[in-house]
């Protein structure tokens, strides 16, 4: 039986999480995007988050306000209007998703 490897002299425990940035970007584009950001980031992290994260939060808030307004009017939301409300800035979603993946 081979000898056991020697223990590292310092008690370090390093963990690595693997996630798909595309999956996070999909979540950020969904109705749960703002909720996801607020659940992952602590208030201090949110205060110093990248501008792309704040842009996603603003778009989500505008979307939610638009949905509430449409519910009050009783009209159904069309798919192309939803894409338009998201701002079409896919680069901002990619930047925000990359930032969130590092958290």
UniProtKB/TrEMBL annotation:
GO molecular function, one term: holo-[acyl-carrier-protein] synthase activity
Disordered, as annotated region: 60-90
InterPro entries linked to this entry: 4-PPantetheinyl_Trfase_dom_sf (IPR037143)
Residue ranges, compositional bias (Basic and acidic residues): 70-89
Highest taxon of source: Eukaryota
Listed name of the protein: Uncharacterized protein
Native organism: Thermothelomyces thermophilus (strain ATCC 42464 / BCRC 31852 / DSM 1799)
């Amino acid at each position: 039986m081979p000898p056991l490897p020697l223990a590292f002299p310092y008690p370090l425990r390093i963990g690595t999480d693997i996630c798909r940035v595309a999956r996070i970007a999909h979540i950020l584009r969904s109705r749960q995007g703002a909720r996801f950001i607020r659940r992952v980031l602590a208030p201090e992290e949110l205060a110093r988050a990248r501008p792309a994260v704040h842009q996603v939060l603003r778009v989500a808030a505008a979307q939610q306000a638009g949905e509430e307004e449409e519910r009050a009017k009783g009209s159904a939301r069309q798919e192309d209007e939803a894409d338009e409300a998201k701002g079409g800035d896919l680069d901002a979603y990619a930047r925000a998703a990359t930032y969130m993946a590092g958290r």
